[in-house]
Specification:
- By secondary structure, the protein is an alpha+beta fold.
- It has a single domain, classed as HIT family, subunit A.
- Helix content is 20%, strand content 22%.
- It contains two helices and five strands.
- A five-stranded antiparallel β-sheet has the order 1-2-3-5-4, with helices on one face.
- The longest helix is centred in the middle third of the chain and has 17 residues.
- Pfam families: HIT.
- GO terms for molecular function: catalytic activity.
- It comes from Gloeomargarita lithophora Alchichica-D10.
- This is Histidine triad family protein.
């Protein structure tokens, strides 16, 4: 069910990661190169390469990922706000082609990003 990306290997427990949440649909880990005091990745267990490649049948899963992001952000006391980021493709800054959401918080976020 998971892909051969680094995230697929983490899901299969072939590579260690600091897991902060897991359920039947996704896993949440700490980013190994954090860009904020809190930087977590919400990764679906179903390997969708890019958000632009999500299909109508992924609608419930995508909603679940957002709800998990909300719950994990609350558990990490990000009461003053946080940023959710999904990179898509080369120009979008995607480096791992397994859909994932970044939760960034614990500091003021600049605009525009990037």
């Amino acid at each position: 069910m998971s892909s051969d990306t680094i995230f697929g290997r983490i899901i299969r427990r072939e590579i260690p990661a600091t897991i902060v949440h897991e359920d039947e649909h996704c896993i949440v880990i700490q980013d190994i190169h954090p860009q904020a005091p809190v930087h977590l990745l919400v990764i679906p267990k179903e390997p969708i390469p890019r958000i632009s490649q999500a299909q109508p049948e992924h609608q419930a899963l995508l909603g679940h990922l957002l709800r998990v992001a909300q719950q994990v952000a609350q558990a990490h006391h990000l009461t003053e706000g946080y940023r959710l980021v999904i990179n898509d493709g080369l120009q979008g800054g995607q480096t791992v082609y397994h859909l994932h959401l970044h939760i960034l918080g614990g500091r003021d976020m600049a605009w525009p990003p990037g």
